[in-house]
Write a structure and sequence with these properties.
By secondary structure, this protein is α/β, with parallel strands linked by helices. Strands 6-5-4-7-8-9 form a 6-stranded mixed β-sheet, with helices on both faces. Strands 3-11-10 form a 3-stranded antiparallel β-sheet, with helices on one face. The radius of gyration is 17 Å and the shape is globular. It starts with a strand and ends with a strand. Bound molecules: inosinic acid and magnesium ion. The site of inosinic acid has 18 residues, from strand 5, strand 7 and helix 3.
Length: about 200
């Protein structure tokens, strides 16, 4: 019988750990490259709602709509859910950076698309799927600061601190994960698996 592994979380820390195998069937059906279940769709939904509430509280008193700057492509799924968890007005902008090619090792960082609207005096929240080395967000933050926003914060669904090279402060973190490449909920491996509703390790 096919076996899968589930994850456990310290409810106080939001730290995800790999746990021993259980006999629970994987959901959805296993695809090639799909490893252990790490974070379920239900758990992601709950955490993203919490983050939405927290972000709405932090920005409750700003007098212009919050600008969500979403890093393409991996953060789009997270951003779409986070946007709908906000109780404050928000606008959407996109930036495009690629630090991974078709595999799991870092390549050269490219900034292919920059925000369209002016950010002068605006409150900006950068939205990323996962912070690994920290190089992607620090390069983008540097570019965004030149546009003179009133404030610039970072929301990341996943934080994988094991391979950090650049010190990046994350203002809103979904989950801290172990040193494993992950797929699903927008995160890809060679362009695939973004459609998985939960987050899985790569085999
Ligand atoms: P960093 O620049 O090393 O922090 O890498 C962050 C970027 O690499 C993110 O925007 C992701 O697109 C990609 N990335 C890093 N780790 C993973 C992973 O485990 N799965 C999928 N994409 C990843
Ligand atoms: Mg990315």
């Amino acid at each position: 019988m096919a076996q899968t592994q589930t994850s456990a979380q310290d409810p106080d820390q939001g730290v995800i750990a790999l746990m021993p195998e259980t006999s629970a069937p994987p959901e959805p059906a296993v695809k090639k490259d799909m490893g252990r279940a790490l974070i379920s769709a239900e758990r992601i939904a709950k955490r993203v709602e919490e983050m939405g509430r927290e972000i709405s509280e932090v920005y409750a008193d700003i007098d212009t709509p919050l600008v969500l700057v979403v890093i393409l492509k991996g953060a789009t799924v997270f951003a779409a859910d986070l946007l709908r968890s906000l109780s404050i007005p928000a606008e959407l902008e996109f930036v495009s950076a690629a630090s991974y090619g078709s595999g799991t090792s870092p390549g050269k960082l490219r900034l292919a698309h920059m925000v369209e609207g002016p950010l002068v005096g605006r409150h900006v929240l950068l939205i990323e799927d996962i912070i690994d080395s920290g190089r992607t967000v620090s390069a983008i933050e540097k570019r965004l600061r030149r546009l003179k926003p009133a404030s610039l914060r970072l929301a990341a669904l996943l934080d994988r601190p094991a391979r950090r090279e650049v010190d990046t402060g994350i203002d809103f973190t979904g989950f801290v994960i172990p040193d494993r490449f992950v797929i699903g909920y927008g995160l890809d491996y060679a362009g695939l698996y973004r459609e998985l509703p939960g987050i899985y390790t790569l085999t």
